[in-house]
Amino acid sequence: xxxxxxxxxxxxxxxxxxxxxxxxxxxxxxxxxxxxxxxxxxxxxxxxxxxxxxxxxxxxxxxxxxxxxxxxxxxxxxxxxxxxxxxxxxxxxxxxxxxxxxxxxxxxxxxxxxxxxxxxxxxxxxxxxxxxxxxxxxxxxxxxxxxxxxxxxxxxxxxxxxxxxxxxxxxxxxxxxxxxxxxxxxxxxxxxxxxxxxxxxxxxxxxxxxxxxxxxxxxxxxxxxxxxxxxxxxxxxxxxxxxxxxxxxxxxxxxxxxxxxxxxxxxxxxxxxxxxxxxxxxxxxxxxxxxxxxxxxxxxxxxxxxxxxxxxxxxxxxxxxxxxxxxxxxxxxxxxxxxxxxxxxxxxxxxxxxxxxxxxxxxxxxxxxxxxxxxxxxxxxxxx
Length: 384
Fold this sequence. Notes:
This protein is of the alpha/beta class and 384 residues long. 48% of the residues lie in helices and 14% in strands. The longest helix has 17 residues, at 61-77.
């Protein structure tokens, strides 16, 4: 019996594939192509580095450390003697946490694609909507959560839940059981979050029970803090804003938002805030794009701005015009909006020049408030 080594693994795999095509051996003996791909040296770091290089993305030292650590755990978890006994893909699960914009989604999304073609990448909020809908539609069956997890298991080898966070007691009680069931059946789980596990669901009802249900994550997962203060998304925005002003238009903006923020961005529907519809130029998982002259003429209030900042990490605004005391309701709304973005830490991008915006309000009635608004605007990004 030949031993599979790094030197001969590729040739052995090719021989088996050729024998299968010639029907010299059965499909059962061959197992499957995905099985043999796992016998080969994966070299995750190099492969992912090459994939991202094509998009002009260069990994920093902390990101490379994460990938090297994952690659080491991958080989430790799948020692060669166990390959012949496992039918299910067996990759290490990951909890990757760190500051906004550190590349967590980018890394885990591309890593899941490299590991298997049988993956599901989904935002945590969307996943929980699916869970709740399934429970609602299957109230009469026994242990519907277990049925749901089996439904997921039958479809994916790697489940990536992006932006993992808990704000609702219903989600807190459900997600613990779902993840535990998946973990016990060797389903690979990738979780990205802005918070470490012990900082989730702060001040929530029955929090101790929730945290207890999450202990297996630190025990069984690769639990990695993606440290550093480099915000790669901000760098991309800065690069876009450094273009000539004439090159920053609706068409280039849509292309930029799709490529850098959300490939499924919506540029057709209205924005839903506080169960009301408001005009917008586009929105996605991480951004909202507003028309200054249209959005702030609509009857939105502070509560709407809070929800806007909570839902969307970045807020882009364009189509500015000079305003005065004849449009005081608009001025008041914009001032309240700026206060809200400042207090919540939302990232504001003004698609106009700083000099132009400095002359935005020319009036007297709200000058005492506008001085504060001008200070808030200094935190925003502008076209250079």
